[in-house]
Design goal:
The complex is a heterodimer of chains A (about 290) and B (about 260). Chain A has one domain: MetI-like (MetI-like fold). Chain A is mainly alpha-helical and about 290 residues long. Chain B has about 260 residues and is an all-alpha fold. Chain B has one domain: MetI-like fold. Chain B is about 75% helix and about 0% strand. Chain B has 11 helices and no strands. In chain B, helix 8 runs antiparallel to helix 11. Classes of the chains: A mainly alpha (about 290), B mainly alpha (about 260).
Chain lengths: ~290, ~260
C-alpha cells in the first residue's frame, strides 16, 4: 500500500460505508413494494416511479419547481448587484464585506427562519407597525403562503449567491469593460454584452445551489408555509415518517438526487465552455500587444 | 465617468439594503429577547427574565447538552479522518472521481442523506440515539474538514517536507515538526466549522435520533418550540445561538485568514 492509500483509507472507507452504501440502499428500496405494515416487501416494481407521475405527486413536484425557481431568480436579482457593488470596493474592504454577508448564513437555519415568523405573522412586527400607523386596517396575510416560503428561501441562500457571484465578478479585470466603453458601448450594452456573459459560470453556480437546496427543503415550507404548500422535501419526509411508505420516499429521494446531478452536470459544462471561450477570446490579445 | 456615477450610487444603496435585509430580522430577535413583555408589539422595558427562564428549563438544558456531545464527538472523528483524507488527496495525481465523492456530502440534499442513513441503520438493526447522530454528522463534516484543509495544503511548499526527509527525519517526525505546524490553523478552522455545522444541524439529526426524548438535540428542541408557537423564550435562545455561532465563525476566519465557503 502506498502512503497515499493509507492516508485516504479511513476517509474513503467512512464515506463508502455511510454515504455510498446508504444511497444504494434507498435506490434499491425505491424498486421494491411497500409492505403491509410499513416495512419493505422485496418484490421488484417500478410502481413507485409510476406513482410519482400521478396528479398528486406531480402537483407537489410542479409547486416545488415553481417555488424553487422563483427563489432562485429573486436571489440572483438581489445577489448580482450586491456582489458587483462589493467587487467595486477597495480590495482591503472586500473581504470584510463578504464576511459580513456570510455571517448570518452560518447561524442556525431554524432561528433565521423563525425570525421571519416574528416579522410576518398577523400580530407580527410588520403588520402591527402598518396597523398602528394607519396604513392598513386588517393585517396582511404575509405568513403561511408561497410568498413567505420564497422570502425565507431567498433570505437563507442569498449570502451564498453573493459569494459565488463575487468570485466570478472579481476575476474580471476592468480592461474589457473599459474597452467596451471606449468603443462607444453604453453602460447597459457593456453589462449585457461583456460582463454578464463572462460571469455566467458564477450565475450558474449560485443558481444551482439555491435551486437544489430550495427544492429539497423541508424546514421553510413547513414553518413559513405552514404546510399549505408542501414541497419535494416535505413529501419525502411524510412518506418516511407519516405514511411509512419507505419505497415511495426513497423513489422521491432518488428523483431529487437525479435532478441535482443533472443541474450540477449542466453547470460544469457551462463553466468548462465559458473558461474555454474566455481563453480563446482573451489569449490573442497579449500576442497582439507584443507584436 | 459622469454616466457611471449614478450607477455606483445605486449599487451602493442596493448593497446597504441587502445588509439591512440580512441583519434586521436577527437584530429584531436580539432586541425582543430583552423586552420585558417578550412581545414584538411594544417595548415594556429591559429585562433578562427570558434568559432566566431558559436556564430553569430542563428540556432546553438537556437538549443543549446533547448537542454539545454530538458536536464534539463528530468534530473529533471528522477532523482526524478529514485531515488525513485531505493530505492523501493532495499527494500524487489529481483524481476527479475521488474529489467528486468527497464533495458529495456537501451538496446532497439533507433530506436524502437523512432517509438514506435511517434506512441503513434500520437495515443493520442498529439502535438509534446520540451515537447514530454522531456517525451521521461525521459524513458531511469529513467533507467540510477535507475541503478546508486541502485549501491550506494547496499553498504549502512541498519542498520543505522533502528537505526534512533529506536531513534524516522520519515520516512521523516530519509530520509532527513540519507538516502539522503549517496546516494547524487550517485544521483548527475546519474543526470549528464542523462543530458549528453539527451543532446547528436539524433534519439529519431528527431522522437518525430515534424515538427517545433522551436524544433530542438543541435544534430539535428549537423546532418543537417554534411549531408550538411564538414564545419569547425562543428569542433568548436565538440571541445566544447567534452570538455563539458568530463568535465561532469569526474565530475560524481569523485563524484561516480567508472567507468561509
Amino acid at each position: 500500500m502506498t502512503r497515499r492509500t493509507i492516508l485516504m483509507a479511513p476517509g474513503l472507507g467512512y464515506l463508502a460505508l455511510f454515504l455510498v452504501v446508504p444511497c444504494l440502499i434507498i435506490f434499491a428500496y425505491s424498486l421494491f413494494e411497500r409492505g403491509t405494515y410499513g416495512g419493505i416487501d422485496y418484490t421488484l416494481t417500478l410502481e413507485n416511479y409510476q406513482r410519482s407521475a400521478t396528479s398528486l405527486f406531480a402537483r407537489i413536484f410542479l409547486d416545488s419547481v415553481r417555488i424553487a425557481g422563483t427563489a432562485t431568480l429573486v436571489a440572483l436579482l438581489i445577489g448580482y448587484p450586491a456582489a458587483y457593488a462589493i467587487a467595486q470596493k477597495p480590495r482591503n474592504r472586500q473581504m470584510a464585506l463578504l464576511v459580513l454577508v456570510m455571517l448570518p448564513f452560518w447561524s442556525n437555519y431554524l432561528i433565521r427562519t423563525y425570525a421571519w415568523i416574528v416579522l410576518l405573522n398577523n400580530q407580527g412586527l410588520i403588520n402591527r407597525t402598518l396597523q398602528s400607523t394607519g396604513v392598513i386596517d386588517q393585517p396582511l396575510p404575509l405568513l403561511y403562503n408561497e410568498f413567505a416560503i420564497v422570502l425565507g428561501l431567498v433570505y437563507n441562500y442569498v449570502p451564498f449567491v453573493i459569494l459565488a457571484l463575487y468570485s466570478s465578478i472579481s476575476r474580471l479585470g476592468p480592461e474589457l469593460r473599459e474597452a467596451s466603453f471606449d468603443l462607444g458601448g453604453s453602460a447597459w450594452t457593456t453589462f449585457r454584452r461583456v460582463t454578464l456573459p463572462l460571469t455566467a459560470p458564477g450565475i450558474a453556480a449560485g443558481a444551482v445551489f439555491v435551486f437544489v437546496l430550495s427544492i429539497g427543503n423541508f424546514v421553510t415550507p413547513d414553518l413559513l408555509g405552514g404546510g399549505q404548500r408542501p414541497m419535494l422535501g416535505n413529501l419525502i419526509y411524510s412518506q418516511y415518517l407519516s405514511a411509512r411508505d419507505w419505497p415511495m420516499g426513497s423513489a422521491l429521494g432518488f428523483i431529487l438526487v437525479v435532478i441535482m446531478l443533472a443541474l450540477l452536470f449542466a453547470q460544469a459544462l457551462l463553466s468548462a465552455r465559458a473558461s474555454g471561450e474566455g481563453e480563446t477570446r482573451l489569449a490573442p490579445q497579449p500576442a497582439r500587444v507584443a507584436a | 465617468m459622469i454616466a457611471r456615477d449614478p450607477i455606483r450610487l445605486w449599487l451602493n444603496a442596493h448593497l446597504g439594503l441587502v445588509y439591512l435585509f440580512l441583519y434586521v430580522p436577527i437584530l429584531v430577535l436580539i432586541v425582543l429577547s430583552f423586552n420585558k413583555s417578550g412581545l414584538p408589539t411594544a417595548w415594556t422595558g429591559f429585562s433578562t427574565e427570558w434568559y432566566g427562564k431558559l436556564i430553569a428549563n430542563p428540556k432546553i438544558l438537556s437538549a443543549a447538552g446533547n448537542s454539545l456531545v454530538v458536536a464534539v464527538a463528530s468534530t473529533v472523528i471528522s477532523t482526524v479522518i478529514g485531515a488525513l483524507l485531505a493530505m492523501g488527496l493532495e499527494e500524487g495525481r489529481p483524481t476527479p472521481w475521488l474529489d467528486a465523492l468527497v464533495a458529495a456530502p456537501m451538496i446532497i440534499p439533507d433530506i436524502v442523506l437523512a432517509i438514506a442513513l435511517l434506512s441503513f441503520y434500520t437495515l443493520l438493526n442498529m439502535s438509534l440515539g446520540l451515537h447514530s447522530i454522531v456517525l451521521s454528522h461525521a459524513v458531511f463534516n469529513i467533507a467540510f474538514v477535507c475541503m478546508v484543509v486541502r485549501t491550506r495544503l494547496k499553498n504549502f511548499d512541498r519542498s520543505i517536507v522533502e528537505a526534512s526527509i533529506d536531513l534524516g527525519a522520519g515520516e512521523l517526525t516530519t509530520f509532527r515538526r513540519v507538516t502539522l505546524p503549517v496546516i494547524a490553523p487550517g485544521v483548527i478552522a475546519a474543526a470549528l466549522l464542523s462543530f458549528t455545522l453539527s451543532i446547528d444541524e436539524f433534519i439529519i439529526a431528527y431522522f437518525t435520533a430515534g424515538a427517545g426524548q433522551g436524544s433530542t438535540t438543541f435544534p430539535m428542541q428549537i423546532y418543537a418550540m417554534i411549531r408550538f408557537g411564538v414564545t419569547p423564550e425562543i428569542n433568548a435562545i436565538a440571541t445566544i445561538v447567534i452570538g455563539f455561532s458568530f463568535f465561532l465563525v469569526l474565530l475560524s476566519q481569523r485563524l484561516n485568514g480567508e472567507v468561509a465557503p
